[in-house]
Amino acid sequence: MRVYRWDLDKTYLDTDFESVRGLFRSAVESARSKRAIPGATALLRELARERPGWRPRIVLLSGSPTQMRSVLEQKLRMDGIRWDDFVLKDTLGSLRKGRFRAVKDQFGYKLPQLLQGRIGMGAAVREILFGDDAEADALIYSVYADVVAGRVAPIELSRLMEAAGAYPDAIVAALAAQKQIARADAVDRIFIRLDRGVERWSFEALSPRVVPVRTWLEAAIVIGASGELEADALCRVHDAGTYSVGEVGEAASSLLRRGLVDRAALQHLSGTMGGHPLAGLLSASLSETPEAPPHVERPRVDYLELVRAWKARPRPSA
Fold this sequence. Notes:
Blueprint: E1 2-6, H1 20-28, H2 40-48, E2 57-65, H3 69-78, E3 85-89, H4 91-96, H5 101-104, H6 107-118, E4 126-132, H7 137-148, H8 154-164, H9 168-180, E5 187-193, E6 210-213, H10 216-225, H11 231-240, H12 245-257, H13 263-271, H14 277-288, H15 303-312
Parallel strand pairs: 1-2, 1-4, 2-3, 4-5, 5-6
Helix pairs in contact: 2-11, 6-7, 6-9, 8-9, 8-15, 10-11, 10-12, 12-14, 13-14
């Protein structure tokens, strides 16, 4: 079985939550006024598509408050999105309890939710996660992946969450979930949409599992080359966006240079697209891009150092 876990704000929805005005607008606007990130709707629809013997599980995990569930679900239904689980943040409940830090806390919210969502899944269940660079998705998802794989011990997980500013009960919840999870190297890819001008090299410490992308078409190409999206699905994702020839060519070349797609698989994929324009763009990239360098095994990730660096980073002003 395959699980696709998606964030919403800045990942699926074009949301401005970095200013008070943006937060207010997001809270009061209708489902029809909410805009999806280009390509996100088409990609998520294709990933959720059922085939004989194949029914992927779609999990939505968002930091948006629970009070927005109705309008968010309405938007997703309008977009034709199917989902199996949809988790939102109890922001109002935190405020009522005086837990003001929890409003912005991502580690203490997302990590326990991810781990609890893994309970009961067998070691054979594979996952792909989707997020953005607005908060700490790449770091949280990577810690989650290594916890599931058994590479992060409980004491390290506790220290990481404490350093990130999580409340004690969130740490307890994460540790309790960790004990119940079947150990497996289950997370294949973590796609991070670049929205804030962050450079790809900023994610080097978490590569190659973390894949920063500028468009969701890039993610679709990687998934298609792995065999999980058929050629016609990839073409539909392409057609749903407004990608220039240069953007598509550069995206495919970048993925090849970074060794994120197999040349033979991409050649086969482009060869099954018939006369679709995407086929020619992919073929041109194959001929113009040199072989990727050999994969180099990276040292163990120092998550505590990365968490501290993340906490110390400059915050955007409201």
